[in-house]
Amino acid sequence: MRPLVRILGRSAARAAQHAQLPSPDVLELRVHGVANTPPAAMLGLDPTQIEQVDGDALGSFWAATPRALGTERPAGDPRVPPPGVRREGYSWGAMARLSTVPALGKASGLVAGVIRALWVLIIPFGLANVAYWTRDADEPTGRRSSAAGGLVRLFGLALTLLWVATTATVALGIVGAQCYGPRTTLDVAVPGQGTTSVDYVLTCSALPDQLDSWARWSSGSRTAVLAVLAAAAVLALAAVGSTGRLRYERRMSGTKARGLATGTAMDDGKVWPMLARPGFWTHAKRSSVLWYQHLSAAFALLAVLLAWHFLYRDEPECWDATGFGARGCLGPDVWTASGNGSWAVMVAVGVLLLVVVAFRVARVRLDPLPHGASRAAATSDAEVSRAPDAALFGVGFALFGWAVVVVAGSGDEPLRPSDPAAVPFLGLAAVPSLLIGLMVVLCVASVGLRSRLRAAVWAPCVVVAVGGAVTALLWPDGAGGVVSRSVTGVAFVVLLVVAVVANARHRTRSREGWSGRGPFVLLATSAGIAMVLSAATVLGVVAWLQAPGAPENASVPAQVTAALSEVAAADRLRDPVTVEVAAPVQLVTPPGYVEFAVMSVAVIAVLAVLMIVLSARMGALRSRPLPVIPGDAPPATPDKGVDQAIQRGRRHAALAHRAERIVGVVGTAFFLALVGTLLLPDPDEQVAGFWGDVWDLGVQWSTKAVVLAFGLVVASVVGAGSKKSLARPWGLLWDLMCFLPRAAHPFAPPCYAERVVPELRARIDTWLGDDLDPASVPPSQRRSLQGRRVVISAHSLGGVVAVAALLARWDGPAGPNDDRVALLTYGTQLRAYFGRFFPELFGPAVLGTHPVAPARLWAADPWAAPLPADAAPDAITVVESLTTPGHPTRWRSLWRRTDFIGFPVDAYSADGTGIDHPAQEVDDVAYLLTIAAHSGYPNAPEYRGQLDELVGLLRNDGP
């Protein structure tokens, strides 16, 4: 026992010795990235060697325990901070990857699975929100404005209505109209009792047994309940992104809360970057009006669908949408007929409410308060009135409630029209196609948003194109139909030409994501994913209800039936039993979903071919070694195992670096799928010849493919939360998608940065004493605080968070130029992704760095391309704010060619601002040969070297 006692004694002595060291003057604050690195791994220690020093279960700060600090370690050990430096780690990943719903903290597996599935369904809303921030956020207002924000918000409203149409299709069009047949009376002879009547309703046997009792209800009561369930599905989707314990949008730092964020720099008369302007992270009340608007539109659409169906259910000539107006269905004879008055009023009020809501959505302004701008200050968030939009919500809810009550008392008439060829629930045939068409023309207009295509140009084209298409559908024959179709085509072509030409003339498109077409790519991807989820939902439910095991779906192949019939005809005494089998029940799927399934399968096939060709191309280029600096002479062919492993890691990383190009192809493919959905024929139409067989095969297999994809999505969702019941599926996606505030869609996932940025700023301010009133600080404490410094050490996406926190501190006592702060980033996406996708937030004019062209798709080295022209900054940049005149900049960044999502922030070469430095690509700490990729930067010797240099600069002892 003596050796053990002696070891413990030395450890305790070292801990005591460390406790007697002078207080550290520099805080090294590490911030993790997309990998959600645990606090212990961030600090390079065991979980038992760290302790939480501040925060809660979602955002917390960690440091080494005194015993861990007193542990003797070898010289150069990366776990040992420099002298006089306190090392902390900030863990924020739980905000991006965990969702908390009141009263469901200990939910069962089924409830938790439903929660995770709903998180998947709001992915399109999140992408639409990202598209909002890719527009030109600094464009002028007034008549010359492109109203880009209004366009994206209208697109978000269309996504909400698409989900409403999907839920209505499942609840009303499939279950209500097809799974519950008309009530039938059967006369049954009972021996000794005469004849009695039995009422029965045929139902889909695949439905849960608990729903069998619904067959005893009247058709009106059952339809009303199903309509309420459809509305509940919409509310559930809204609740996922809008409720929970987290109130990110109401967070603020202690400096702001105490009124100390009023430095003299706020009156410098300059236009600050968007992230530094007051109000960027605080607009909860302003953005909440979108919540009222979307729910109002959802209730209005459900009311219109209900009223429309019951208005025209008994009018056979109005069951087909084509020629609807030409047959007098919009005339007063139908609307004023006996019993139709209330339905007609509901339709008129609902359509008017949808138009008003669309106008209100387009007019919402969520930009932060201007700083140093010439225009008058906008209304602050606290002064925004939500009364008009709350009133719209009340009208929509009342209209839907009225429709439900009237439907419930409508009696027991069959819900489905008497003609089996008619759409089971009228209105659902046209609504999805109309929404798809609206999203298509908005996507086309978005091509010119970053080039400031005026709203006075694109808005009339959108209105004329959509209005002309609807008119051509309602009155297709005669000269009026020809004129409507011509006007629609001309408006669409004009919109396409002016948007493309405007984008081609955009001077800065080479340094912007997707050549200045970021809104188009993200909106098209959002619409495509929304349609995939909608089609998977509808077709998956149809496939479930048409399960082969259900008695009503029993079927025998036609060849078998024909063979049995021939045998029976040849020898009737051989088999006197009838061999005819009743045709299986086929549920009718409204148009739009099957067509998109066909197009989506075709798109997936094209993308698969593209990836195969790209992989083959990369395989053929294996003989060309990649240099450390793109554009330099390639190194000699590697002959050593370590050099070959490095080259292999660089090739794999270079393949991932083409993400922008690949996402652009995906977005374009989704757009073409949406266009094809509008052009493809009705799946039920018979097409003769070879192409008819191809079409039938495509419809059959595409439906199965979408259902299979639906199953895979559900499986991945369940698997994603197997360890944590409310963990969001595909955590990396949420890290990247939820950084920016909700401004385009109220049901989008909440922005974790609205808490992370103020929380990180608060920790910096607390260490530096900026959160204290100078008049109340004793002189001794003031002298101690004056000597304190901070180095923010940020990995990957943490670098984006760190820059946002630095910009948020510009309104503090020190203003933009705070020489007490330095920044060390590594493996970050600031320049290659965020700077290109969001130029007004993280672009070269904001950061003060060199722009970069997109990675080339087919070249061996994707970054061996000329750099675009430098961007002229409008005001002070981040680099300038971190640079003291006559001294090097206090920003360093590490990168590797083997890092698949890490890039320089200024340039690969050493020329420029001296920010970027390559880190070694071989992990020296690993037991076996390991090529370092996106992790392990703090273990590299370059990290310690740059950290020491920054600490020296902060202490004025550096070069």
Beta strands, count: 10
Rg computed from alpha carbons, rounded to a whole number of angstroms? 32 Å
Question: What is the tally of helical segments?
Answer: 31
Sketch the major β-sheet.
8 strands, mixed
The stretches of 5 or more residues where confidence is low (pLDDT under 50) are 1-20, 102-108, 244-250, 370-377, 575-582
Shape: elongated
Question: Span between N and C termini?
Answer: 52 Å
Helix content: 40-55%
- In order across it, which strands form the biggest sheet? 2-3-4-1-7-8-9-10
Quote the average pLDDT: 82
Strand content: 5-15%
Structural class: alpha/beta
Report on this model:
- It contains 31 helices and 10 strands.
- With 959 residues, it is an alpha/beta fold.
- The radius of gyration is 32 Å and the shape is elongated.
- The model is unreliable at 1-20, 102-108, 244-250, 370-377 and 575-582 (pLDDT under 50).
Q: How are the secondary structure elements laid out?
A:
Blueprint: H1 2-19, E1 26-31, H2 39-43, E2 50-55, E3 60-64, H3 66-69, E4 85-91, H4 93-97, H5 109-121, H6 123-133, H7 148-178, E5 184-190, E6 194-200, H8 219-242, H9 254-257, H10 284-312, H11 332-335, H12 341-363, H13 387-408, H14 431-446, H15 455-474, H16 478-504, H17 518-545, H18 558-570, H19 593-620, H20 641-656, H21 659-679, H22 689-720, H23 731-737, H24 753-768, H25 779-786, E7 789-795, H26 797-808, E8 821-826, H27 830-837, H28 839-842, H29 844-847, H30 878-881, E9 891-895, E10 916-918, H31 941-954
Parallel strand pairs: 1-4, 1-7, 7-8, 8-9, 9-10
Antiparallel strand pairs: 2-3, 3-4, 5-6
